[in-house]
Design a protein that fits this description.
The structure is a homodimer. The first copy, chain A, has about 260 residues and is α+β, with helices and mostly antiparallel strands. The first copy, chain A, is built from 5 helices and 15 strands. Chain A has a 7-stranded antiparallel beta sheet with strand order 4-3-2-1-7-6-5, with helices on one face. In chain A, strands 9-10-11-12-13 form a 5-stranded mixed beta sheet, with helices on both faces. In chain A, strand 12, helix 4 and strand 13 form a beta-alpha-beta unit. In chain A, helix 3 packs parallel to helix 4. At the A-B interface, strand 1, strand 2, strand 7, strand 8 and helix 3 of A face strand 1, strand 2, strand 7, strand 8 and helix 3 of B. Strand 8 of chain A pairs antiparallel with strand 2 of chain B. The structure holds a DNA duplex (15 and 15 nucleotides).
DNA sequence: GCGATCAGCGGCACG
DNA sequence: CGTGCCGTTGATCGC
Protein backbone atom coordinates (compact mmCIF):
# COMPACT_ATOMS: atom_id res chain seq x y z
CA UNK A 1 0.00 0.00 0.00
CA UNK A 2 1.06 3.54 -0.66
CA UNK A 3 2.05 6.02 1.97
CA UNK A 4 -0.02 8.91 0.69
CA UNK A 5 0.54 11.06 3.72
CA UNK A 6 4.29 10.69 3.31
CA UNK A 7 4.11 11.70 -0.33
CA UNK A 8 1.91 14.64 0.50
CA UNK A 9 4.45 15.83 3.08
CA UNK A 10 7.33 15.24 0.70
CA UNK A 11 5.72 17.44 -1.96
CA UNK A 12 4.71 20.12 0.51
CA UNK A 13 8.21 20.30 1.91
CA UNK A 14 9.73 20.61 -1.53
CA UNK A 15 7.25 23.37 -2.38
CA UNK A 16 8.08 25.25 0.81
CA UNK A 17 11.73 25.10 -0.13
CA UNK A 18 11.08 26.43 -3.60
CA UNK A 19 12.09 23.28 -5.42
CA UNK A 20 10.91 22.28 -8.85
CA UNK A 21 8.88 19.09 -8.48
CA UNK A 22 8.05 16.29 -10.86
CA UNK A 23 5.35 13.79 -9.97
CA UNK A 24 4.73 10.78 -12.19
CA UNK A 25 1.62 8.69 -11.80
CA UNK A 26 -1.82 7.64 -12.88
CA UNK A 27 -4.33 10.41 -12.54
CA UNK A 28 -7.44 12.06 -13.84
CA UNK A 29 -7.54 15.79 -14.45
CA UNK A 30 -10.33 18.33 -14.31
CA UNK A 31 -10.15 21.96 -15.23
CA UNK A 32 -12.62 24.78 -14.85
CA UNK A 33 -11.97 28.37 -15.71
CA UNK A 34 -11.82 30.20 -19.02
CA UNK A 35 -13.00 26.91 -20.43
CA UNK A 36 -13.62 23.52 -18.83
CA UNK A 37 -12.05 20.15 -19.46
CA UNK A 38 -11.98 16.56 -18.33
CA UNK A 39 -9.20 14.09 -18.85
CA UNK A 40 -9.89 10.50 -17.81
CA UNK A 41 -7.41 8.37 -15.94
CA UNK A 42 -4.02 7.75 -17.51
CA UNK A 43 -0.30 8.05 -16.84
CA UNK A 44 1.12 11.55 -16.77
CA UNK A 45 3.86 13.78 -15.54
CA UNK A 46 3.02 16.71 -13.30
CA UNK A 47 5.51 19.54 -13.00
CA UNK A 48 5.22 22.14 -10.27
CA UNK A 49 7.52 25.17 -10.39
CA UNK A 50 8.29 27.60 -7.62
CA UNK A 51 6.47 30.43 -9.37
CA UNK A 52 3.24 28.45 -9.35
CA UNK A 53 3.53 27.12 -12.87
CA UNK A 54 1.68 23.82 -13.02
CA UNK A 55 1.99 21.50 -16.01
CA UNK A 56 0.35 18.17 -16.76
CA UNK A 57 2.14 16.35 -19.58
CA UNK A 58 1.08 13.27 -21.46
CA UNK A 59 3.60 10.92 -23.08
CA UNK A 60 3.25 12.64 -26.45
CA UNK A 61 3.13 16.11 -27.93
CA UNK A 62 4.91 19.27 -26.91
CA UNK A 63 2.22 21.14 -25.06
CA UNK A 64 0.96 20.40 -21.58
CA UNK A 65 -2.54 18.90 -21.77
CA UNK A 66 -3.60 20.93 -18.74
CA UNK A 67 -1.77 23.75 -17.10
CA UNK A 68 -1.78 26.79 -14.90
CA UNK A 69 0.55 29.74 -15.34
CA UNK A 70 2.80 31.55 -12.87
CA UNK A 71 0.97 32.77 -9.80
CA UNK A 72 -1.13 29.69 -9.18
CA UNK A 73 -1.60 28.48 -5.61
CA UNK A 74 -0.93 24.78 -5.30
CA UNK A 75 -2.55 22.65 -2.62
CA UNK A 76 -1.78 19.01 -1.85
CA UNK A 77 -4.43 16.91 -0.15
CA UNK A 78 -5.20 13.35 0.76
CA UNK A 79 -8.63 12.53 -0.59
CA UNK A 80 -10.21 9.10 -0.22
CA UNK A 81 -6.83 7.40 -0.27
CA UNK A 82 -5.80 9.34 -3.33
CA UNK A 83 -3.31 12.14 -3.71
CA UNK A 84 -5.16 15.23 -4.88
CA UNK A 85 -3.17 18.19 -6.13
CA UNK A 86 -4.98 21.40 -6.97
CA UNK A 87 -3.76 24.59 -8.61
CA UNK A 88 -5.83 27.72 -8.42
CA UNK A 89 -5.38 31.11 -9.99
CA UNK A 90 -7.36 34.35 -9.95
CA UNK A 91 -5.91 35.97 -13.06
CA UNK A 92 -6.99 36.26 -15.81
CA UNK A 93 -10.01 34.87 -14.00
CA UNK A 94 -10.77 32.39 -11.24
CA UNK A 95 -9.77 28.99 -12.47
CA UNK A 96 -8.50 25.73 -11.09
CA UNK A 97 -7.11 22.35 -12.03
CA UNK A 98 -7.53 19.21 -9.99
CA UNK A 99 -5.13 16.34 -10.52
CA UNK A 100 -6.27 13.23 -8.72
CA UNK A 101 -3.63 10.52 -8.48
CA UNK A 102 -4.76 6.95 -7.96
CA UNK A 103 -1.14 5.85 -8.17
CA UNK A 104 2.15 7.63 -7.80
CA UNK A 105 5.11 6.12 -9.63
CA UNK A 106 7.70 8.58 -8.48
CA UNK A 107 8.44 12.02 -7.12
CA UNK A 108 11.56 14.06 -7.81
CA UNK A 109 12.40 17.53 -6.61
CA UNK A 110 15.32 19.79 -7.44
CA UNK A 111 16.69 23.14 -6.46
CA UNK A 112 17.15 24.86 -9.77
CA UNK A 113 19.24 27.99 -9.69
CA UNK A 114 19.07 29.77 -12.98
CA UNK A 115 19.24 33.48 -13.70
CA UNK A 116 20.13 33.14 -17.35
CA UNK A 117 17.98 34.53 -20.10
CA UNK A 118 17.71 33.22 -23.60
CA UNK A 119 19.57 35.09 -26.29
CA UNK A 120 17.51 34.69 -29.42
CA UNK A 121 18.53 35.53 -32.97
CA UNK A 122 16.51 35.82 -36.11
CA UNK A 123 13.49 37.47 -34.56
CA UNK A 124 11.27 39.78 -36.54
CA UNK A 125 12.60 42.69 -34.57
CA UNK A 126 16.16 41.87 -35.59
CA UNK A 127 15.18 41.65 -39.24
CA UNK A 128 13.39 44.96 -38.94
CA UNK A 129 16.46 46.54 -37.37
CA UNK A 130 18.63 45.30 -40.21
CA UNK A 131 16.23 46.60 -42.83
CA UNK A 132 16.18 50.01 -41.16
CA UNK A 133 19.91 50.27 -41.86
CA UNK A 134 19.34 50.03 -45.57
CA UNK A 135 15.91 49.89 -47.12
CA UNK A 136 17.63 49.94 -50.50
CA UNK A 137 17.57 46.17 -50.44
CA UNK A 138 13.81 46.38 -50.85
CA UNK A 139 13.77 49.24 -53.31
CA UNK A 140 16.30 51.77 -54.46
CA UNK A 141 15.96 55.18 -52.80
CA UNK A 142 13.51 53.96 -50.22
CA UNK A 143 14.27 55.92 -47.06
CA UNK A 144 13.17 55.05 -43.53
CA UNK A 145 10.98 57.50 -41.62
CA UNK A 146 10.13 55.57 -38.47
CA UNK A 147 10.30 52.12 -36.96
CA UNK A 148 7.46 50.84 -34.77
CA UNK A 149 5.17 53.68 -35.65
CA UNK A 150 1.98 53.67 -33.58
CA UNK A 151 -1.19 54.56 -35.43
CA UNK A 152 -4.78 54.32 -34.28
CA UNK A 153 -5.32 50.74 -35.33
CA UNK A 154 -2.00 49.16 -34.61
CA UNK A 155 1.73 49.54 -35.04
CA UNK A 156 3.53 49.85 -38.34
CA UNK A 157 6.83 47.94 -38.50
CA UNK A 158 8.56 50.37 -40.81
CA UNK A 159 7.25 53.60 -42.26
CA UNK A 160 9.22 54.88 -45.24
CA UNK A 161 9.16 57.19 -48.22
CA UNK A 162 9.92 56.27 -51.82
CA UNK A 163 11.60 58.33 -54.50
CA UNK A 164 8.22 59.75 -55.55
CA UNK A 165 7.58 61.04 -52.00
CA UNK A 166 4.90 58.43 -51.46
CA UNK A 167 4.42 56.93 -48.04
CA UNK A 168 5.45 53.28 -47.88
CA UNK A 169 4.34 50.92 -45.14
CA UNK A 170 6.56 47.88 -44.71
CA UNK A 171 5.27 44.90 -42.74
CA UNK A 172 8.06 42.49 -41.84
CA UNK A 173 7.45 38.79 -41.26
CA UNK A 174 10.10 36.29 -40.20
CA UNK A 175 8.13 33.44 -41.75
CA UNK A 176 5.77 32.83 -44.63
CA UNK A 177 3.14 35.54 -45.00
CA UNK A 178 -0.45 34.35 -44.97
CA UNK A 179 -3.88 35.91 -45.20
CA UNK A 180 -3.82 37.54 -41.82
CA UNK A 181 -0.48 39.20 -42.59
CA UNK A 182 -2.11 40.79 -45.60
CA UNK A 183 -5.13 41.86 -43.57
CA UNK A 184 -2.82 43.42 -41.06
CA UNK A 185 -0.91 45.38 -43.70
CA UNK A 186 -4.14 46.38 -45.38
CA UNK A 187 -5.46 47.71 -42.10
CA UNK A 188 -2.48 50.03 -41.74
CA UNK A 189 -2.58 51.15 -45.37
CA UNK A 190 -6.27 51.96 -45.19
CA UNK A 191 -5.82 54.05 -42.08
CA UNK A 192 -3.02 56.14 -43.54
CA UNK A 193 -4.88 56.56 -46.81
CA UNK A 194 -7.81 58.02 -44.90
CA UNK A 195 -5.68 60.32 -42.83
CA UNK A 196 -3.23 61.58 -45.37
CA UNK A 197 -3.67 62.96 -48.78
CA UNK A 198 -0.56 61.30 -50.07
CA UNK A 199 -0.42 58.10 -51.99
CA UNK A 200 0.27 55.21 -49.64
CA UNK A 201 1.94 51.96 -50.69
CA UNK A 202 2.09 48.77 -48.66
CA UNK A 203 4.83 46.15 -48.88
CA UNK A 204 4.82 42.80 -47.17
CA UNK A 205 8.38 41.68 -46.60
CA UNK A 206 8.68 37.97 -45.86
CA UNK A 207 10.73 34.93 -46.88
CA UNK A 208 7.71 33.52 -48.71
CA UNK A 209 3.99 33.98 -49.14
CA UNK A 210 1.11 31.59 -49.62
CA UNK A 211 -0.53 31.53 -53.03
CA UNK A 212 -3.81 32.71 -51.66
CA UNK A 213 -2.24 35.53 -49.70
CA UNK A 214 -0.46 36.66 -52.86
CA UNK A 215 -3.75 36.78 -54.73
CA UNK A 216 -5.37 38.84 -52.03
CA UNK A 217 -2.34 41.12 -51.93
CA UNK A 218 -2.55 41.77 -55.66
CA UNK A 219 -6.28 42.30 -55.50
CA UNK A 220 -5.68 44.99 -52.90
CA UNK A 221 -2.90 46.62 -54.90
CA UNK A 222 -0.29 45.85 -52.29
CA UNK A 223 3.23 44.53 -52.89
CA UNK A 224 5.39 41.60 -51.88
CA UNK A 225 9.12 41.68 -51.36
CA UNK A 226 10.92 38.39 -50.88
CA UNK A 227 13.11 38.70 -47.82
CA UNK A 228 16.11 36.43 -48.23
CA UNK A 229 17.77 35.92 -44.91
CA UNK A 230 19.81 33.40 -43.00
CA UNK A 231 20.88 33.01 -39.42
CA UNK A 232 24.58 32.42 -39.20
CA UNK A 233 26.97 33.98 -36.72
CA UNK A 234 24.64 33.76 -34.70
CA UNK A 235 22.88 36.88 -35.88
CA UNK A 236 20.52 37.24 -38.76
CA UNK A 237 21.81 38.41 -42.08
CA UNK A 238 19.80 39.70 -44.97
CA UNK A 239 21.01 38.73 -48.40
CA UNK A 240 22.01 41.75 -50.47
CA UNK A 241 21.94 44.08 -47.52
CA UNK A 242 24.95 46.24 -46.88
CA UNK A 243 25.30 48.20 -43.71
CA UNK A 244 25.46 51.90 -44.35
CA UNK A 245 28.41 52.13 -42.04
CA UNK A 246 30.41 49.66 -44.05
CA UNK A 247 29.47 51.28 -47.33
CA UNK A 248 30.59 54.67 -46.11
CA UNK A 249 33.83 53.23 -44.81
CA UNK A 250 34.65 51.59 -48.08
CA UNK A 251 34.16 54.88 -49.87
CA UNK A 252 36.08 57.02 -47.43
CA UNK A 253 38.79 54.53 -46.64
CA UNK A 254 39.37 52.40 -49.68
CA UNK A 255 41.58 49.39 -49.14
CA UNK A 256 45.08 50.74 -49.20
CA UNK B 1 33.17 12.08 -9.82
CA UNK B 2 30.27 11.37 -12.07
CA UNK B 3 29.69 8.20 -14.01
CA UNK B 4 28.78 9.82 -17.29
CA UNK B 5 28.91 6.62 -19.27
CA UNK B 6 26.47 5.01 -16.85
CA UNK B 7 24.06 7.90 -17.16
CA UNK B 8 24.36 7.88 -20.91
CA UNK B 9 23.47 4.17 -20.96
CA UNK B 10 20.64 4.69 -18.51
CA UNK B 11 19.05 7.33 -20.71
CA UNK B 12 19.59 5.35 -23.90
CA UNK B 13 18.00 2.27 -22.40
CA UNK B 14 14.98 4.25 -21.23
CA UNK B 15 14.65 5.77 -24.70
CA UNK B 16 14.81 2.36 -26.33
CA UNK B 17 12.04 1.18 -24.08
CA UNK B 18 9.84 4.15 -24.92
CA UNK B 19 9.91 5.68 -21.49
CA UNK B 20 9.36 9.32 -20.70
CA UNK B 21 12.55 10.70 -19.25
CA UNK B 22 13.34 13.62 -16.99
CA UNK B 23 16.91 14.80 -16.56
CA UNK B 24 17.72 17.51 -14.03
CA UNK B 25 21.04 19.24 -14.08
CA UNK B 26 23.25 22.17 -14.88
CA UNK B 27 23.57 22.73 -18.59
CA UNK B 28 23.97 25.18 -21.40
CA UNK B 29 21.70 25.05 -24.41
CA UNK B 30 22.19 25.96 -28.03
CA UNK B 31 19.61 25.95 -30.76
CA UNK B 32 19.89 26.43 -34.48
CA UNK B 33 17.07 26.13 -36.94
CA UNK B 34 14.17 28.43 -37.79
CA UNK B 35 15.97 30.84 -35.49
CA UNK B 36 19.05 30.47 -33.32
CA UNK B 37 19.54 30.80 -29.59
CA UNK B 38 22.03 30.48 -26.81
CA UNK B 39 21.30 29.89 -23.16
CA UNK B 40 24.23 30.07 -20.76
CA UNK B 41 24.79 27.57 -17.99
CA UNK B 42 22.10 27.14 -15.38
CA UNK B 43 19.91 24.52 -13.70
CA UNK B 44 17.14 23.07 -15.83
CA UNK B 45 14.84 20.18 -16.38
CA UNK B 46 15.04 18.25 -19.64
CA UNK B 47 12.06 16.14 -20.66
CA UNK B 48 12.31 13.57 -23.43
CA UNK B 49 9.15 11.89 -24.65
CA UNK B 50 8.84 8.75 -26.71
CA UNK B 51 7.53 10.65 -29.72
CA UNK B 52 10.70 12.73 -29.86
CA UNK B 53 9.32 15.71 -27.99
CA UNK B 54 12.20 17.45 -26.26
CA UNK B 55 11.65 20.16 -23.67
CA UNK B 56 14.09 22.27 -21.69
CA UNK B 57 12.40 23.95 -18.75
CA UNK B 58 13.70 26.63 -16.46
CA UNK B 59 12.48 27.03 -12.89
CA UNK B 60 9.96 29.66 -13.89
CA UNK B 61 7.35 30.33 -16.56
CA UNK B 62 5.06 27.95 -18.37
CA UNK B 63 6.79 27.53 -21.68
CA UNK B 64 9.88 25.50 -22.37
CA UNK B 65 12.83 27.82 -22.98
CA UNK B 66 14.11 25.52 -25.73
CA UNK B 67 12.27 22.68 -27.38
CA UNK B 68 11.82 20.34 -30.26
CA UNK B 69 8.48 18.90 -31.32
CA UNK B 70 7.40 15.32 -32.00
CA UNK B 71 9.59 13.54 -34.55
CA UNK B 72 12.94 14.73 -33.28
CA UNK B 73 15.82 12.25 -33.13
CA UNK B 74 17.56 12.32 -29.79
CA UNK B 75 21.21 11.36 -29.38
CA UNK B 76 23.10 11.00 -26.11
CA UNK B 77 26.86 11.41 -26.12
CA UNK B 78 29.77 11.74 -23.77
CA UNK B 79 31.68 14.85 -24.71
CA UNK B 80 34.75 16.03 -22.82
CA UNK B 81 33.45 14.56 -19.57
CA UNK B 82 30.10 16.15 -20.09
CA UNK B 83 26.77 14.61 -20.97
CA UNK B 84 25.65 16.00 -24.32
CA UNK B 85 22.10 15.41 -25.43
CA UNK B 86 21.08 16.47 -28.91
CA UNK B 87 17.70 16.60 -30.60
CA UNK B 88 17.46 16.98 -34.34
CA UNK B 89 14.49 17.39 -36.60
CA UNK B 90 14.05 17.83 -40.36
CA UNK B 91 10.56 19.27 -40.40
CA UNK B 92 9.59 22.05 -40.76
CA UNK B 93 13.27 22.49 -41.55
CA UNK B 94 16.58 21.10 -40.36
CA UNK B 95 17.09 22.19 -36.81
CA UNK B 96 18.76 20.97 -33.69
CA UNK B 97 19.19 21.61 -29.99
CA UNK B 98 22.25 20.75 -27.99
CA UNK B 99 21.99 20.42 -24.24
CA UNK B 100 25.36 20.13 -22.61
CA UNK B 101 25.26 19.01 -18.99
CA UNK B 102 28.19 19.85 -16.78
CA UNK B 103 26.35 18.28 -13.86
CA UNK B 104 23.46 15.87 -13.61
CA UNK B 105 21.37 16.07 -10.44
CA UNK B 106 18.99 13.26 -11.25
CA UNK B 107 17.42 11.10 -13.89
CA UNK B 108 13.93 9.63 -13.77
CA UNK B 109 12.17 7.54 -16.38
CA UNK B 110 8.61 6.24 -16.50
CA UNK B 111 6.45 4.06 -18.68
CA UNK B 112 3.45 6.25 -19.28
CA UNK B 113 0.47 4.47 -20.74
CA UNK B 114 -2.19 6.95 -21.71
CA UNK B 115 -4.68 6.76 -24.54
CA UNK B 116 -7.04 9.34 -23.17
CA UNK B 117 -7.91 12.50 -25.00
CA UNK B 118 -8.92 15.76 -23.46
CA UNK B 119 -12.58 16.63 -23.54
CA UNK B 120 -12.73 20.38 -23.79
CA UNK B 121 -15.79 22.59 -23.35
CA UNK B 122 -16.34 26.20 -24.19
CA UNK B 123 -14.43 26.25 -27.47
CA UNK B 124 -15.28 28.62 -30.24
CA UNK B 125 -16.68 25.74 -32.23
CA UNK B 126 -19.07 24.83 -29.44
CA UNK B 127 -20.30 28.42 -29.19
CA UNK B 128 -20.77 28.51 -32.93
CA UNK B 129 -22.76 25.27 -32.83
CA UNK B 130 -25.02 26.68 -30.15
CA UNK B 131 -25.58 29.89 -32.08
CA UNK B 132 -26.48 27.91 -35.19
CA UNK B 133 -29.39 26.45 -33.26
CA UNK B 134 -30.92 29.85 -32.75
CA UNK B 135 -29.45 32.99 -34.24
CA UNK B 136 -32.45 34.84 -32.79
CA UNK B 137 -30.35 35.52 -29.71
CA UNK B 138 -28.24 37.83 -31.88
CA UNK B 139 -31.08 39.35 -33.83
CA UNK B 140 -34.71 38.46 -34.34
CA UNK B 141 -35.42 36.66 -37.61
CA UNK B 142 -31.77 36.05 -38.37
CA UNK B 143 -31.62 32.69 -40.10
CA UNK B 144 -28.52 30.53 -40.57
CA UNK B 145 -27.38 29.68 -44.11
CA UNK B 146 -24.09 27.89 -43.52
CA UNK B 147 -21.53 27.19 -40.83
CA UNK B 148 -17.80 27.15 -41.68
CA UNK B 149 -18.32 28.57 -45.14
CA UNK B 150 -15.14 28.60 -47.20
CA UNK B 151 -14.59 31.63 -49.35
CA UNK B 152 -11.51 32.68 -51.29
CA UNK B 153 -9.83 34.52 -48.48
CA UNK B 154 -10.72 32.41 -45.50
CA UNK B 155 -13.57 30.68 -43.71
CA UNK B 156 -16.68 32.39 -42.42
CA UNK B 157 -17.87 31.10 -39.03
CA UNK B 158 -21.56 31.62 -39.69
CA UNK B 159 -23.23 32.92 -42.83
CA UNK B 160 -26.81 34.07 -42.31
CA UNK B 161 -29.61 36.16 -43.74
CA UNK B 162 -31.58 38.87 -41.97
CA UNK B 163 -35.22 39.81 -42.30
CA UNK B 164 -34.36 42.21 -45.13
CA UNK B 165 -32.71 39.41 -47.12
CA UNK B 166 -29.28 40.87 -46.53
CA UNK B 167 -26.32 38.58 -46.12
CA UNK B 168 -24.93 38.59 -42.60
CA UNK B 169 -21.45 37.36 -41.72
CA UNK B 170 -21.03 36.38 -38.08
CA UNK B 171 -17.53 36.00 -36.66
CA UNK B 172 -17.54 34.21 -33.32
CA UNK B 173 -14.85 34.74 -30.70
CA UNK B 174 -14.65 32.93 -27.40
CA UNK B 175 -12.66 35.76 -25.88
CA UNK B 176 -12.37 39.51 -26.15
CA UNK B 177 -12.33 40.71 -29.75
CA UNK B 178 -9.35 42.81 -30.74
CA UNK B 179 -8.09 44.57 -33.83
CA UNK B 180 -7.21 41.47 -35.74
CA UNK B 181 -10.67 40.00 -35.15
CA UNK B 182 -12.10 43.08 -36.81
CA UNK B 183 -9.62 42.84 -39.68
CA UNK B 184 -10.61 39.25 -40.16
CA UNK B 185 -14.33 40.03 -40.28
CA UNK B 186 -13.69 42.97 -42.55
CA UNK B 187 -11.77 40.73 -44.94
CA UNK B 188 -14.74 38.39 -45.28
CA UNK B 189 -17.26 41.21 -45.63
CA UNK B 190 -15.21 42.90 -48.35
CA UNK B 191 -14.93 39.70 -50.34
CA UNK B 192 -18.64 39.00 -50.29
CA UNK B 193 -19.45 42.61 -51.11
CA UNK B 194 -17.30 42.35 -54.21
CA UNK B 195 -18.77 39.07 -55.30
CA UNK B 196 -22.42 39.61 -54.56
CA UNK B 197 -24.70 42.42 -55.38
CA UNK B 198 -26.54 42.11 -52.10
CA UNK B 199 -25.95 44.21 -49.07
CA UNK B 200 -23.56 42.43 -46.69
CA UNK B 201 -23.47 43.01 -42.94
CA UNK B 202 -20.76 41.85 -40.57
CA UNK B 203 -21.25 41.06 -36.90
CA UNK B 204 -18.51 40.27 -34.42
CA UNK B 205 -19.90 38.11 -31.68
CA UNK B 206 -17.68 38.00 -28.59
CA UNK B 207 -17.93 38.31 -24.81
CA UNK B 208 -16.21 41.69 -24.97
CA UNK B 209 -14.28 43.95 -27.30
CA UNK B 210 -11.38 46.32 -26.80
CA UNK B 211 -12.10 50.01 -27.04
CA UNK B 212 -9.90 50.42 -30.05
CA UNK B 213 -11.39 47.45 -31.86
CA UNK B 214 -14.85 48.91 -31.27
CA UNK B 215 -13.79 52.20 -32.83
CA UNK B 216 -12.39 50.45 -35.86
CA UNK B 217 -15.55 48.36 -36.11
CA UNK B 218 -17.76 51.41 -36.11
CA UNK B 219 -15.57 53.18 -38.59
CA UNK B 220 -16.02 50.22 -40.93
CA UNK B 221 -19.75 50.08 -40.45
CA UNK B 222 -19.61 46.66 -38.83
CA UNK B 223 -21.49 45.52 -35.75
CA UNK B 224 -20.77 44.06 -32.33
CA UNK B 225 -22.95 41.63 -30.45
CA UNK B 226 -22.07 40.88 -26.85
CA UNK B 227 -22.00 37.13 -26.43
CA UNK B 228 -22.94 36.31 -22.86
CA UNK B 229 -21.96 32.76 -22.08
CA UNK B 230 -20.91 30.56 -19.22
CA UNK B 231 -19.46 27.11 -18.92
CA UNK B 232 -21.42 25.06 -16.48
CA UNK B 233 -22.40 21.43 -16.86
CA UNK B 234 -19.69 21.11 -18.30
CA UNK B 235 -20.92 22.43 -21.61
CA UNK B 236 -21.15 26.00 -22.71
CA UNK B 237 -24.42 27.82 -22.40
CA UNK B 238 -25.34 31.05 -24.09
CA UNK B 239 -27.43 33.43 -22.08
CA UNK B 240 -30.80 34.04 -23.66
CA UNK B 241 -30.41 31.21 -26.11
CA UNK B 242 -33.15 28.65 -26.32
CA UNK B 243 -32.58 25.47 -28.19
CA UNK B 244 -34.99 25.10 -31.07
CA UNK B 245 -35.79 21.64 -29.83
CA UNK B 246 -36.84 22.89 -26.45
CA UNK B 247 -38.80 25.76 -27.92
CA UNK B 248 -40.72 23.45 -30.22
CA UNK B 249 -41.34 21.04 -27.40
CA UNK B 250 -42.76 23.68 -25.16
CA UNK B 251 -45.16 24.78 -27.87
CA UNK B 252 -46.24 21.35 -28.97
CA UNK B 253 -46.25 19.74 -25.58
CA UNK B 254 -47.05 22.38 -23.00
CA UNK B 255 -46.52 21.35 -19.42
CA UNK B 256 -49.54 19.30 -18.54
C1' DG C 1 0.64 17.40 -47.78
C1' DC C 2 -0.52 22.47 -47.55
C1' DG C 3 -3.15 26.12 -45.63
C1' DA C 4 -6.23 28.67 -42.77
C1' DT C 5 -7.58 29.34 -38.07
C1' DC C 6 -8.01 28.53 -33.09
C1' DA C 7 -5.71 28.41 -28.59
C1' DG C 8 -7.90 27.95 -21.48
C1' DC C 9 -2.87 30.41 -26.56
C1' DG C 10 1.77 32.55 -23.51
C1' DG C 11 4.83 36.27 -23.30
C1' DC C 12 6.61 40.88 -24.12
C1' DA C 13 6.93 45.72 -24.60
C1' DC C 14 4.90 50.02 -24.60
C1' DG C 15 1.27 53.34 -23.76
C1' DC D 1 -3.16 48.01 -15.94
C1' DG D 2 -4.74 47.35 -20.91
C1' DT D 3 -3.61 45.99 -25.62
C1' DG D 4 -1.32 45.12 -29.70
C1' DC D 5 1.40 41.59 -31.68
C1' DC D 6 5.15 38.23 -32.00
C1' DG D 7 6.21 33.20 -31.40
C1' DT D 8 11.63 28.33 -33.24
C1' DT D 9 4.23 29.75 -31.83
C1' DG D 10 1.73 24.53 -31.48
C1' DA D 11 -2.32 21.90 -32.69
C1' DT D 12 -6.38 20.90 -35.39
C1' DC D 13 -9.21 20.28 -39.21
C1' DG D 14 -10.37 20.77 -43.90
C1' DC D 15 -9.08 20.61 -48.86
Amino acid sequence: MEDITGKKRQIEKAMDEGQTIVVAGKCEVKYQGRAASKLSEGDRLLIIKQDGTFLVHQSKKMNAINYQGPGAKVIVEENEKKLLITAQRMKPMKESIEVNFSEVYGISAYFLKDDEKLKLFGTERELSDLLMQDLGVIERDLIPLKQESDIRHGTIDILAEDSGKNLVIVEVKRREASLDSISQLNRYVNELRERRNRKVRGIICAPSITENALRMLERLGLEYFKLDYEIANPSARIKGLQKKQRTLDSYEKPTS
